[in-house]
Known about the structure:
By secondary structure, the chain is an all-alpha fold.
Amino acid sequence: ANGTCTSGSNTGSGDTFEENVLKHWKEYDQNKDGKIGWEEYKNTTYDEEFDDVDDKTSYKTMLTRDERGLRTADRDRDGTTTKDKFTAFLHPEEYDHMKAVVIQVSQRTGISQ
Ligand SMILES: [Ca+2]
């Protein structure tokens, strides 16, 4: 995951899978309602650092990829992301129903033109 590992106080390579998810979860669930909405996700991930970025194409590509990932993780299609869904989104390789996303992402990043 790009752009989410900027914590200066992070001492650790010892994070477990769950600790890692929880760390991101707290970061993204800004209003602490136990769900992450798309807007919440977008605001946390892309913030204003992309506002004046030249490369709008890669911004859009990332945005589309993330939206697709979250939609795929949203199995009951209620439009919100619970912790279970968020875990699947962060670690799609661990979940059968996320396999399509893993394949799409690796294809996308594997092609350099
Ligand atoms: Ca929330």
